[in-house]
Write a structure and sequence with these properties.
160 residues; alpha+beta; Rieske Iron-sulfur Protein; 2 domains; 7-stranded antiparallel sheet; 4-stranded antiparallel sheet; 2 helices; 24% helix; elongated
Length: 160
Amino acid sequence: MSEMNRREFVAAVACAAGACMMCGSFAGAADTVADAGAAASGSKIDAGAVTDYAKDGVFDQHASAKKILIARENGKIYAMTAVCPHKGSIVKLSANGQMLECPKHHSQFKFDGEVTKGPARAALFRLGISQDADGHIMVDPSTKFGEKQWDDEGASIAVK
């Protein structure tokens, strides 16, 4: 086997670096495709009993695993995606508990999902929500409501 010259070495290193970067991109794309597949399958998420959300506020116990937030406000319960519309990170309750914040680029959102500080430009999507016969909240991640559709049927449920 002959030895590589400098030009061949640099080309090989560049190809290897590019291949490594593509592997990372494909891994992220695979996660996105898997999430989209779950949403497209129409499988609903049981977010627990309505009584689990007895007072107004945002509840993030499903944010990491299921990528949803549940909020109760003014006699309504609604579900939001926990995925920041800017770059796809999971939003969290801020340290002071007064807003939602993306830990990656620090976009901030009101508890209703409206963006208050960028770089995100769009609000968090609301997700389809219903209540089953047992009083459980069922979230349909395949049904999304943009900010102008938040008052549409299926974007929230009324509670007492």
